[in-house]
Design goal:
The chain has 113 residues and is of the alpha+beta class. It has one domain (5-106). 28% of the residues lie in helices and 27% in strands. The protein is built from 3 helices and 4 strands; from the N terminus they run H-H-E-E-E-E-H. It has helices at residues 5-9, 17-31, 95-106; strands at residues 50-54, 57-66, 69-76, 81-87.
Amino acid sequence: MVRTEASTRLWDGLWTAAHLAETTRDSRAAMFSEHATADGKPTGRGYAWTISGSPDSIVARLAGSVWIGSSAVLFLPSDHFAAVVSTNLGFQQPSALLDSLAMAWRHHPLPTP
């Protein structure tokens, strides 16, 4: 699918500002909350990514590698910061690079997982 100005206009009105304001609060809270196992044990995981930090300074991460590339995502919701790095280096997760970018943005270290 090729995104054009005309095809983008087809989405106008689907998600209004009022609709987004109403629906995203609970979605974001669930997205950046740790989800326990069925028997209540903590997992340190949200929606597939690891969650660390404190309630007012959450860090969410997801990283993975295969033989043809590596990718990692880092979210700092309270700082309005997100970074994504993808490489063609197999099994070389770029998590350290993401941490460096986040520290430059925040001017202080990230909470440890």
